[in-house]
Amino acid sequence: MAIEDMWKWLDSVLNEFRGCFSRKAAYKWFVIVVIGFMIRSDKLGITSIIRELSINPGLYYNILHFFRAESWNVLTMSTCFIEIIMRSGLLYMEEGMPILAGDGTKVGKESKRAPGVKKQHQESEDSSKAEYIYGHLYGAVGVLIGNVTKLFCVPIMCTIHDGVDEIKKWDDGTYEKVSHVVQMIKDGSKVAAKLGESIFTLDRYFLSVPALEELEKEEKKAGKKLLNIITKAKKTCTAYEKPEKKAGRGRPAKKGKDVKLIKLFTEKIDEFIEAKVMLYGEEKTIQYYSIDLLWGIKLYRELRFVLVKCGEELTILVSTNLNFSPEKIIRLYGYRFKIEVTFKQLKQIIAGFSYHFWSKVMPKLNKYLKKGEKDERLKKVTKEKERGKIISALKAIEGYVMLSCIALGLLQMMSIIFSEKLDLSQYRWLRTKSNKIVSEGTISEVMRKSIFQVFEKQGNLSILQIIKSKQLQTMEDIYWDDSKTA
Fold it and tell me: Cystine design at 200: which of 38, 54, 227, 473 (Cβ 3.0–4.6 Å)?
C-alpha cells in the first residue's frame, strides 16, 4: 500500500503544476520528463527518459521542442514549486523563519555554440579538477525541509549567473547586468518574498558591500524585512568600532577604531566561551567570542561577528541579525553545507546538468582569446530571428535544470513522507542504515522498480495515463503472458 500511496501523492503534486502551462501538450511532456528524471538508470540526456519509460522514439524531437516552447517559463515553475513546499508542511523553520541556503556551482561544457559557455576558474582543492574549465556558472537557492534528525535542501531556483547578460537583455529590455554575488541576493529575496522573512546561509565569497547594498534595496522595494544573512568572513577581515560622539561643529565620524578580527583570537582568548553545539549532525565542543562591529568601506553596516575555535580550526562567522545568539549563528551556518549535498545529488542521481542544447546561429566560442580580450561574439548577432533562437536555447538549458531541481525536490519530499512506511528490503539492499529517512537515490530506485507494478494496479492515475499515451506499445504488449501464446 505504501508504494501505491507514494505514486498517488506524486500524481496529486504534479497535477498542481498544470496551471504553469498554457497548453495541455506541454504539461504532458513536463510530467514525462520529471518522472523520467526521477527513475532513469542511465544519465545520457533525453534518450534515457525515452528508454526508461518506453516512450515512442519518434517523439524524441517533440521532447526537445518542449524545452524551447513558449507555453511555460522557469520563474512560474519555481513559484509554483515554492507554494507546493509551503503547503506540504515539511519546511524546517527556526523561530518561525525558513532556512535558505545559497551557493554557486560550475558545470563543464565542451559545446562551442551553447549560450553562456565561458572560461571558469575552479577554486576546488581537489587535485583531480582542472584549475580552469569551459562551462556554465550556476547560482542556486534551496530551502531546508525535514527535521533535526534528517534535513534536505530542496533546490527551488537554479539559473546561469555569468555569460548570459547580453542574451537576457535581448529578451527583457529592463534587465540589468549584475555580478554573481548580487544576483544571489536578488534570487534569495525573490524566494523570501514568497516564504516570508527567512534565514539565508551563504559561503564567505558572498560577504561583500554590493551584496549588503542590494539586500537593502530589495527590502526597501518589498517594504519589509526579507533576509537574515549568515555567512563567513575571511581571516584577513577588518571591521570598525562605533564612532565616539563628539560635540561641536563638523561632520560626525562614520566609523571608529579599526579592528583586525584575526588578532582577537589571541587578544580576547580569556573571554572566549566554551559551549557544545550541533554541527553537521554531531555534537561538538567549541569556543566562541561574539562582538558587534561596523563593516564595509563607505557602508559601515553593523554586523555581529562570532569568532569560533574548534580544535585548531579558526573561523569567523557573520550575521546581519544582531539579535541572533552566537550559538545559534554557529549552528545555522552548519546548515549551509546542505546545498553542497544537493549539488552532489543533482549531478549524480538526477544528472540535472546533462543537457546538450545549442544553436547553429550562436557564434563559435574562441578558446584562444588573449589575456584582457573580451568575448564579443554576441555583438555579431543582430537579426531578431537569430537572437530569438539563442534566447530559446538558453531557455531550454535553464528549463532542463529547473525540471531536474523539481524532480530532486520531489524525491526528497517523498523520502521524508514515505521512508518509514516502505519495505525497502524488496527494492534495494542497504549495507547499513544511518537514518530512518533514506536518501534520494534509494527512493529513485524504489520508483524505478515499482513503476510497472503500479501501471498494473493503478493505471488510472493521470500521470500514468499521460505516459501510456506516449508509449510505443501498451504494457501488455511489452510484458505478455506466455500462457496466452501457448
Answer: 227
Ramachandran assignment for 47, one of left (phi > 0), alpha (psi -120 to 50 degrees), beta (any other): alpha
- Counting every residue written for the chain, the total comes to 486
Backbone angles phi, psi at 170, to 5 degrees: -60, -40
Share of the chain above pLDDT 90, in %: 73
Q: What are the distances in angstroms from CA 471 to CA 8, 15, 331?
A: 21, 20, 49
Q: How many other CB atoms are there within 10 angstroms of residue 436's CB atom?
A: 9
Q: Are 307 and 280 a contacting pair, CB within 8 Å?
A: no
Per residue in 80-129, pLDDT (tens digit) is 999 999 999 999 999 899 999 999 999 999 899 999 999 998 877 777 77
Question: Which residue is it, cell 527551488?
Answer: 156
DSSP letter (8 states) at residue 283: E
Q: How many CB atoms within 10 Å of residue 68?
A: 16
13 neighbors 410 (Cβ within 8 angstroms) = yes
Q: What is the pLDDT of residues 452-481, one digit of tens each?
A: 888 888 888 999 999 999 997 654 544 444
Domain locations along the chain:
1-72+422-486, 232-243+252-318
User: Rounded to 10 degrees, what is the CA torsion of 332, 336, 337, 343?
Assistant: 150
d(CA 486, CA 484): 6
Instruction: State the maximum Cα–Cα separation within the chain, in Å, rounded to a whole number.
Output: 106
